[in-house]
Design brief:
2 domains, about 20% strand, alpha/beta, Rossmann fold, single chain, seven-stranded parallel sheet
Length: about 300
Amino acid sequence: MKIFVTGATGYIGGSVAEKLMGAGHEVTGLARSEEKAALLKARGIEPVFGTLDASEILTSAAQAADAVIHAASADHPGSVVTLVTALERSGKLLIHTTGSAIVADHADGEFATAAPLTEDDYYEPVPSRRSRVDMNRYLRQAAIEKGVRAIVVCPTMVYGTGRGLQSQSDQIPKLMAISRQVGAGVYFGQGLNHYSNVHIDDLVDLYLLAMEKAPGGAFLFAENGHNSFKELAGMISGHLGFGGNTVSLPVEQVIRQYGEYARLGVASNSYVRAANARRLGWSPTAPSLAEWIQALPPA
């Protein structure tokens, strides 16, 4: 198949693109600069020069492909509408990547949710994530109303070394950076909040499985475990050589340093269970988050 990947220079999209090429698919990838286009070409990915706002370029690339994997942004409504419109009545596959911050709360580290959410459970998103939830619903509805085999994949906290140009995720490297600054593993508030997590290799496998088996309209969480942020602080402390010492920081500090989005990324509960993915036959095999951190080279 010929597959168009947005975010092909990123952590998730780049890792998926590598796996697709390894499986014998032809991959084209969106590139925002000549430098990134050259890097894609060096990896065997045919670059498509443009941005998410370039609707004509997105439309042409999507229509020329057999399938589209949208991994460039979970918060760009225009590109989602463009891709759905481009593929309308084609029956082609469109996989959109969102993120589990859609179920995040404003716990600020002070409490844990009682049980994980599955894909079919009701939740009320915080205001800053309402537009992301609306996009996911629009995509799933496109499978019914617009003749697109639209699927939504929802990763949790992703860890592991990526296969693309960007080899690391977002949350854990930032937590490690803050921990280095203060000389201890850090958490926020009481650190009671839980976040589900998934290894990048297992996540990539889910994309390929969804391509093969998921029906249009499917929504798939991707997780293979969960931890409180206080537990994660202890893991990071051990890795950085701080002897397991941890320290609580005020939530306002991470907001000042990284913005309001980081509040949802490290101080909220985002605790889910990938029921639909497992029904599809997804069976994660990569190391757990604790095992992966323990196996990292000494910092």
